[in-house]
Write a structure and sequence with these properties.
CATH architecture of one domain: 2-Layer Sandwich
CATH topology of one domain: GMP Synthetase, Chain A, domain 3
Distance between the termini: 57 Å
Shape: globular
Order of helices and strands: HEEEHEEHH
Number of helices: 4
Structural class: alpha+beta
Length: 174
């Protein structure tokens, strides 16, 4: 099957066995650094990878050169779901030939980064996110549903969206 989506099954097995034997190995600190280039154009640096450009559309005073931060969050969510789908399929010995994850979210940005509508207690950000997954492979519908459900349940990014997370910030001058 030339259009099969594959990952290293042996590597996945070793990774999962290690995580079961020593769950502490799964606890990581991830880092990213964002630097404003100009206006609302930001370069975000992760590990030693090429930087990611994040911006805003013209309606939000940007130059429309890159996805905005909220779109990037949806992209991260969709990518994490896709990774989980392929990992779960591989773990079950299922070959997938198609994974598509469409993300859509309802968001309130009326606070305009703190200079717009800011009444006490206002909830900002996404209020609802919808994920549409399309899978094709050599498994029956029930197995594909199990793969889907497990990937959603155990996605770190789905869980980040679904559960409260503490966010702290410090300020350095200079």
């Amino acid at each position: 099957m030339s259009d099969a989506l594959v990952i290293d099954a042996e590597g996945l097995d070793k990774l999962s066995c290690n995580a079961k034997a020593n769950p502490e190995t799964g606890k990581k600190t991830l880092k990213a650094k964002t630097v404003c280039e100009t206006g609302f154009r930001n370069m975000t640096y992760v590990r030693d990878l090429a930087p990611m450009l994040v911006g805003e559309p013209p309606a939000l005073l940007g130059d429309d050169s890159a996805p905005n931060p909220s779109e990037t969050a949806l992209a991260a969510l969709g990518s994490c779901v896709s990774v989980g789908l392929l990992a779960n399929a591989t773990h079950r010995g299922v070959t997938l030939t198609k994974i598509e994850v469409e993300m859509e979210g309802d968001i309130d940005i009326s606070a305009v980064w703190g200079v717009g509508d800011t009444p006490e207690g206002k909830r900002l950000g996404f209020s609802a996110v919808r994920c549409k997954v399309t899978l094709a492979g050599d498994a029956d519908e029930a197995t594909l549903k199990e793969i889907h459900d497990n990937a959603i349940a155990w996605s770190p990014v789905v869980n980040t969206f679904s559960n409260p997370v503490s966010v702290g910030s410090t300020l350095s001058i200079g």
